[in-house]
Write a structure and sequence with these properties.
The chain is an alpha+beta fold. The chain folds into four domains: 5-156, Alpha-Beta Plaits (2-Layer Sandwich); 161-254, Glycinamide Ribonucleotide Synthetase, Chain A, domain 4, CATH 3.90.600.20; 255-351 and 397-413, OB fold (Dihydrolipoamide Acetyltransferase, E2P), CATH 2.40.50.1010; 358-391. The chain contains eight helices and 25 strands. It has helices at residues 22-35, 72-85, 107-118, 123-132, 145-154, 181-191, 225-234, 312-316; strands at 5-12, 39-40, 45-48, 61-69, 96-100, 136-139, 161-167, 195-196, 199-200, 205-206, 216-222, 243-249, 271-278, 283-284, 290-296, 299-305, 323-331, 340-350, 354-358, 370-371, 378-379, 386-387, 391-395, 403-404, 437-439. Strands 1, 2, 3, 4, 5, 6, 7, 8, 11, 12 and 25 form an eleven-stranded mixed sheet that branches. Strands 13-15-16-18-17 form a five-stranded mixed barrel. The protein has a three-stranded antiparallel sheet with strand order 20-21-22, with no helix packed on it. Helix 3 packs across helix 5 (145-154), helix 4 (123-132) crosses helix 5 (145-154) and helix 6 runs antiparallel to helix 7. The longest helix is centred in the first third of the chain and has 14 residues, at 22-35. The radius of gyration is 27 Å and the shape is elongated. The chain starts with a strand and ends with a strand.
Length: 441
Amino acid sequence: MEKETVLNIGFDDTDSPKGMCTTFLAYKIVDLLQKQKTTFLDFPKLIRFNPNIPWKTRGNGAVSLKIKTRNPSKIKNQIKNLVSKYSDIKNGANPGLVFFENDLIPSEFIDFSNLALWQLINRNNAKKFAKKNNLEFFYEGNGQGLVGAIGAIGYDFDDHTLELLSYRKKQKFGKERKISAKSVKTMQDETFPNTYNSFDTKKGRVLITPHGPDPVFYGVRGENVDSLVYATKILKSDEKLDGYMIFKSNQGTGDHLKNELNSNTMKPYASGTITGTIINTPKIAKGGHVFFKILSKNNEFWCAVYKQTGLSVNASNLIQGDKIKVGGGVRKASKNFPRIINLEYIKIISLQKNISTTNPLCKKCNKKMKSKGKNQEFQCIRCGNKASKKTIIEIPRKLKKQLYIPKISAHRHLTRPLQRMKITNKSSKFSKSDSWFCVYK
């Protein structure tokens, strides 16, 4: 009898703007392996990498699976066939597939994954990594998918969430999704705080349904299996769905903003944080977007806050001398600006006093005095009282020492919502008997 081996499977970039989905491919692979009584060692992993990569399809997500099998060669061939079948290569997908037979993941994989979270990794570097580490790999197109495939295997969780993705039947791909908004709001109310970002109460907007032609009907994000499965029982739709699968993910962790940006690491498309001091009066541009400069370790950096994030009003109330920490992604230089950081959050560390001067008030008439001329005293035009200098006043600040994040409808996949600020989900107990995978009959 053949010995059982642990097989890690990573894949990415199987979708295009016109269709398919890497998580749907994972759903199809798991369905096949379940029928063959394959042993799964953990939830499928859905890892969101650097969201600022310009050629990402949607959320820059890659998937990995960890299984135990006596026949790895057979499973590898089956998965290769499924990757070819469910990749939208004709519309620009560049799928990458990696196999790694070992229970322990070497530190080189983890380092590669960590780098992919906040920087741009060239696909040729991924190919070199695969060859150097004797990985069995397969790709089509230019091989861009190898970056995510390796990274998904190497990702090491400090914190995680779970996401239940529900899939449509093939005949419904590309058609309008219809779900009861009332049921989504009810689901959010009943499962809070164990689910997050399902419904925007301010706008009355459903946030769990994508808008593209991909096979996903909805995705519910949360902290544990029971809450996600319960959510599916509350949601109402007339569409008969194919099934669902629960992924372990770094979504909602702010994982891409752990690294500090500086003059060396502030490369185009990098993600990270900067702590420093405001050195100019924020400028409000056409459209309501706000731009300002921050001084950090003797280097000046431009920051941009777009109106759509809901942070532009906060940014416009900053003044010179305010100390802040910001997180975001680097936009490459343009004609009007050098490299600039598109902000995803603003954390106020300290606020300067906003001091202004005004003409003195006549204590007798309660009216402002008039200046008698440059460098001269002030005089009340009613009673003639005089004063020698202007009055100093402190204008109340409209900001507080706190964290400001985008409005819920502007959250990215990796944005850590307010309800998760003090939560670190270290472990989700995995059991093959749990309801983490389901194909409806």
